[in-house]
């Protein structure tokens, strides 16, 4: 079990440790077997999800995870500690996200159309150099 006490300090919160990876949708990717532990002095250490091993960084916990792997069996994708966000989205959350994306893209498209219309109006109103020269001579 993950540590509940580190150097005499109680662990007051434990959650999946974030990686520095963001997926294509912009969501933070979390370690599956490494926990970020908030201690009572508000410092953060990283702990193994399987035992009370802790370290100052997730990268120091990663090699330790091999201790929990069955050595007779070759490593599989399930052993890989990096996996996407802890809770999968519900259908309604996905629909909300899709609707938000659609609205953002609609705003961008409308802004781009409006900018393009302004450019077209400027181009149409401004006499070309050739036309201006004709008028002068
Ligand atoms: Zn461990």
Can you tell me about this structure?
This protein has 137 residues and is of the alpha+beta class. The chain is built from 3 helices and 6 strands. It has helices at residues 58-61, 91-125, 129-136; strands at 5-6, 9-22, 28-39, 44-48, 54-55, 82-83. Strands 1, 2, 3, 4, 5 and 6 form a 6-stranded antiparallel sheet that branches. A hairpin with a 5-residue loop joins β4 (44-48) and β5. The radius of gyration is 28 Å and the shape is elongated. The mean pLDDT is 84.
Bound molecules: zinc ion
Helix content, binned percent: 25-40%
The tally of strands reads 6
Average pLDDT, rounded to a whole number, is 84
Unreliable segments of 5+ consecutive residues = none
Class by SSE composition: alpha+beta
Quick one: overall form?
Answer: elongated
Beta content comes to 25-35%
Describe this structure in a few short sentences.
The chain is of the alpha+beta class and 137 residues long. The chain is built from three helices and six strands.
Name a few traits of the molecule.
single chain; 137 residues; alpha+beta; 6-stranded antiparallel β-sheet; 3 helices; 6 strands; 27% strand; elongated; binds zinc ion
Break the fold down into its secondary structure elements and pairings:
Layout: E1 5-6, E2 9-22, E3 28-39, E4 44-48, E5 54-55, H1 58-61, E6 82-83, H2 91-125, H3 129-136
Antiparallel strand pairs: 1-2, 2-3, 3-4, 3-6, 4-5
Bound molecules: zinc ion.
